[in-house]
Amino acid sequence: MTHRFIPLDFERLGPEESRERVRELRDRLRRRRSVRDFSSDPVPLDLIDCAIEAAASAPSGANRQPWRFVVVQDPDSKRRIREGAEAEEKAFYERRATPEWLADLAPLGTDWRKPFLERAPVLVVVFAIDWETRPGPEGAEVRRKNYYVQESVGIAAGMLLAALHSAGLATLAHTPSPMGFLGRILDRPRNERPFLLIPVGYPAPDATVPDIRKKSLDDVRELR
Ligand code: IYR
Question: 12-40: b or e for each residue (b if 16 or more CB lie within 10 Å)?
Answer without folding.
Answer: eeeeeeeeeeeeeeeeeeeeebebbbbbe
